[in-house]
Design brief:
The chain folds into 2 domains: about 80 residues, Helix-hairpin-Helix base-excision DNA repair enzymes (C-terminal) (Endonuclease Iii, domain 2, Orthogonal Bundle), CATH 1.10.1670.10; about 100 residues, Endonuclease III, domain 1 (Orthogonal Bundle). It is built from 12 helices and no strands. The two termini are about 15 Å apart.
């Protein structure tokens, strides 16, 4: 366990500081919508588009009442923008109608929302201060390279990491591993550093 914590700290040291898509929003609904938008899209593309979206629709009610084609135009540079446009409008509607505009801080309730899967729910919850681990491609790849898991299944990886790390580290894992993954775009350099960290 101590070795894994040391490795996590080293990954953090080796990473460039950068804003991730779920971070630095004023409202919980903005955190959730931005996280939905960021799925399989780079944060540096997602963040300015989410900022534009929230300028045009400053409240969750405004977004719930948005026209589909208007939202599609705004978020077009984002991957799967057609599906995501439907999802974020429907998600906003559900938040307004069922949750008084505030996303539930509960995993099982979150995954019922349009566009919210396991990873999105966990990333949102960790931003809200809950001890959870969002497993995306960066977390999956780095965890296997460091021997923290052998699995490629996100839920299994999440459970392996929860067994390996004390609870207080859970919400730090996704942002640290994502920043590390985004810092080194060259696979060769990334793997070289991961090999060194694995041998700590």
């Amino acid at each position: 366990m101590n070795k894994a914590i040391e490795q996590l700290k080293e990954l953090n040291k080796q990473s460039s500081p950068m804003r991730l898509a779920a971070e630095e929003w004023n409202e919980p609904w903005q955190i959730l919508i931005s996280t939905i938008l960021s799925a399989r899209t780079r944060d540096e593309i997602t963040i300015p588009i989410a900022e534009k979206l929230f300028r045009i629709y400053p409240t969750v009610k405004d977004l719930a009442n948005a026209k589909l084609e208007d939202v599609q135009k705004i978020i077009k540079p984002i991957n799967f923008y057609r599906t995501k446009s439907k999802n974020i409008i429907n998600c906003a509607k559900t938040l307004v109608n069922t949750y008084n505009g505030r996303p539930p801080v509960d995993f099982n309730e979150l995954i019922k929302l349009p566009g919210v899967g396991r990873k999105t729910a966990n990333v949102f919850l960790s931003e809200m201060g809950e001890n959870t681990i969002g497993v995306d491609t960066h977390v999956s790849y780095i965890s296997r390279k460091l021997g923290w898991t052998r699995s490629k299944n996100p839920e299994k990886i999440e459970n392996d990491l929860k067994k390996l790390f004390p609870k207080k580290y859970w919400k730090k894992i996704n942002p640290i591993l994502v920043r590390f993954g985004k810092t080194y775009t060259s696979k060769r350099i990334k793997d070289k550093i991961l090999q060194r960290i694995r041998n700590l």
